[in-house]
Amino acid sequence: MARTTFSTDDLLDAAREVILERGPRAATITAIAARAGAPTGSIYHRFASVDELLVRVWLRAVQRTQQVRPDGSDAAGDPVEMAVRLALAFYDHCVETPQDTLLLDRLRREDVLHLDLDPALRAEVQATDRDTAALMAALTRNVFGRAGRRESDLVVLAVIDLPHSFVQRYLQSGKKPPRSRREKLPDAVRAVLTDPNVPAQGPGESQLPVPNSIPST
Prior knowledge:
There is one protein chain. The chain folds into 2 domains: 8-58, Homeodomain-like (Arc Repressor Mutant, subunit A, Orthogonal Bundle), CATH 1.10.10.60; 66-193. It has helices at residues 8-22, 29-36, 40-46, 50-66, 79-96, 98-106, 109-113, 119-144, 149-172, 179-193. It is an all-alpha fold. The radius of gyration is 19 Å and the shape is globular.
């Protein structure tokens, strides 16, 4: 009988399922192997430890999110409308990839940083953090002309937190959100980013290139 070959993604998918059903603490090599229907040796052949496997699951979900592209991307357009398109793209990504979205709720960045990571893997996590920070800073400067704490918080609220909150309850119950949720999102994003207490970019200020992908925080 031919041996079944398990891809890296097969093993990461199995780890994700265990985390979603039982939590990160229950994601042992034995539990993940059982879910995948794979021998434990298949896992140890690819991953040095369960901590490395968990980090790889997290990184895959984050990096997939960072590759989200909005429709109608135009660096010369209205920065607020660009943010609206990014928020809609993130919303659609959450709906289309519910398991990755829920994984990032269960296995958070703070949890990942407390795992036993070798220097190379920790550097990879830190590089992902830097990519996220650079993307958000560029978008914030485009909208507000600067990237202070208040302005950055408003952009994260508009582009990340609002889309996520619009879908989270439905994804947790295994359902798709109604169309009305998506239809209401643009006005909510505009309301946040046109906060009268935060001046918008002035006409004499230079504009940075608008980021064409959306980070995960």
